[in-house]
Amino acid sequence: MNIKRICEIAVKEAKELYDTDLDYTPESIDRLDKMLEAASQETPLSERRRRSIAVEFGFYLGETMLKNGMAEAGWEWKGAKVPMIDLELASGVKLNPVVKVYRRLCNGEEDEVKSFYNVGIAITKGAFYK
Hints:
single chain, mainly alpha, three-stranded antiparallel beta sheet, about 60% helix
């Protein structure tokens, strides 16, 4: 699975369908959240479309996390197939951005992706496990 290629598609789709610029910066996570809210309001949002959005933008979320400190700390993609492809540390700590985006689409703001991003970065900096 070519995660980088899927992310390129996500960035292009965000711009074309939602007029949203995604650039792998921490600030882009707020824009991603707003875009996912708009996507969740599409009528009707089929299960197939929901899963497609979750994969594309879940990988984008994960790649943004990796580019902003998590890769240097040893996080990497692991897993055989979607949705069980996680970001994982050698210690066994796992995060699943694809599932997080799927939940965001299903549950709305209560599952916003900004907090997921912040927790991942905090774990990386040692704020949770000492």
